[in-house]
């Protein structure tokens, strides 16, 4: 999970061949935060590998703030390959 200067948080993906220098994959956006309840924060993902699919459980919130009180809920999304 990364955050911007306005404290909005999103799930991302980065690659590294040696574990020190990382390259962000800008095309990877598994969960867009398109609902009101997760419009400002998507955080703390957990991945569940299923036969033929990958489910991501996550926390979401509509308050962008560094504190844990983000008016949050729990969501789930399915990852699809292109």
Structure report:
Strand 3 (14-15) and strand 4 (23-24) form a beta hairpin. This protein has strands at 2-3, 9-10, 14-15, 23-24, 41-50, 53-61, 72-79. It has one domain (2-79). It is mostly beta strands and 82 residues long. The mean pLDDT is 85. The relative contact order is 0.23.
Q: What's the gist of this structure?
A:
With 82 residues, the protein is mainly β. It has strands at 2-3, 9-10, 14-15, 23-24, 41-50, 53-61, 72-79. A hairpin with a 7-residue loop joins strand 3 (14-15) and strand 4 (23-24).
Features:
single chain; 82 residues; mainly beta; three-stranded antiparallel beta sheet; 0% helix; globular
Write the layout of secondary structure elements.
Blueprint: E1 2-3, E2 9-10, E3 14-15, E4 23-24, E5 41-50, E6 53-61, E7 72-79
Antiparallel strand pairs: 1-2, 3-4, 5-6, 6-7
The strands making up the biggest β-sheet line up spatially as: 5-6-7
How many structural domains does the protein architecture include? 1
Global Rg: 14 Å
Low-confidence stretches: none
What is the helix fraction of residues, given as a range? under 10%
Oligomer designation? single chain
Biggest pleated sheet: 3 strands, antiparallel
What structural category characterises the helix and strand content? mainly beta
Number of strands: 7
Number of helices: 0
User: Span between N and C termini?
Assistant: 22 Å
């Amino acid at each position: 999970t990364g955050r911007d200067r306005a404290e909005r948080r999103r799930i991302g993906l980065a690659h590294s061949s040696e574990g020190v220098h990382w390259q962000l994959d800008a095309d990877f956006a598994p969960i867009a935060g398109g609902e009101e309840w997760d419009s400002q924060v998507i955080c703390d993902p957990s991945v569940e590998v299923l036969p033929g699919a990958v489910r991501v459980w996550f926390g979401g919130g509509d308050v962008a703030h560094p504190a844990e009180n983000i008016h949050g809920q729990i969501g789930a999304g399915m990852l699809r390959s292109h």
